[in-house]
UniProtKB/TrEMBL annotation, chain A:
Organism of provenance: Cellulomonas persica
Pfam families for this protein: Sortase (PF04203)
InterPro entries (alphabetical): Sortase, Sortase_Class_E, Sortase_dom-sf, Sortase_E
Active site: 153, 229
Membrane-crossing segments per the record: 21-47
Descriptive protein name: Class E sortase
TrEMBL record, chain B:
Lineage of the species this protein comes from: Bacteria, Bacillati, Actinomycetota, Actinomycetes, Micrococcales
KW Transmembrane (keyword) present: yes
Transmembrane regions listed in the UniProt entry: 13-36
The species this protein was found in: Cellulomonas persica
UniProt protein name: Uncharacterized protein
Keyword annotations of the record: Membrane, Transmembrane, Transmembrane helix
Amino acid sequence: MSARTSAPARRRPSRGARVAYGVLGVVGELLITLGVLVLAFLVWQLWWTDVQGNRAQAEVVRELPRIPVPTPAPTASSGPLVAPERHDEPPVMAEVDHAVTFATIQVPRWDGEPERPVSEGVDRETVLDVLGVGHYPGTAMPGGLGNVALAGHRTTFAKPFNRVAELQEGDPIVLRTATVDGGPGTDTWYVYRVTSWQVVKPSQTEVIAPVPGKPGESPTERYLTLTTCHPMFSARERYVVHAVLDYWAPVADGTPAELLEGAS
Amino acid sequence: MYAWLWRHLPGPVLVRVLLVAVLVAAVLAVCFTWVFPAVAPFMPFNDTTVGE
């Protein structure tokens, strides 16, 4: 009743008030729209980049020129061909051009993760966001004396290193080089084993030095280092995993036993 | 703003609802394809490398 009596007064607000309410309404609608767009950005970043990235990286691995892994004759009952371990001097390929995919990485501990491409360079626009795992330019190539340093996203963009914290001492990390130019070190398996891991500040470049943690020293060992972000969804620190070469084998000789165990 | 848009959409309510759905989908598609990828590098997370 009181509402009805006061209604005529409300029906004719002053011109100034009408404009003010109109502006306020538009501002409110814009803010709501902005909130919805932020939610949409989260959906894109946390879900869609993974969908797109996984699809694109699987495509890169599928299209990668490389010789097939030999399979035993159908009559053989011995199961898949296990590549004999080679502990002699491994062949090492020449460094490739920026954004060229030259190898793949497989980690049996990350059961269910696909084989990921490894490409030259570690900038986000041309390598990490689109091609998955990146190789720090100037660091050793697979099997080489020194440190093969690789970077990858731990969250978003298909998150190739999402499960990096699951790695334990002795876990194999398997690199398989592609055919590239067909020179030494191409179409070769390199099996590394995890030795240690650490959390460092982004400025601590010594983790990718030829001898990890000791910049300036000349290497006598063949290391592999993975770097990714830490904590998840943060750029505050880096999670770093070090590994050392266990053995190598030509792809033509078969498949490393580490990968076959994971498959069975 | 949205009231203005609603008043200026043609047709009965059902057609307007469909038109709004198409407009929303178009805006989201543009965001997913161009806007969000352009904004992402400026977000303070996702850096995975050591060095500058």
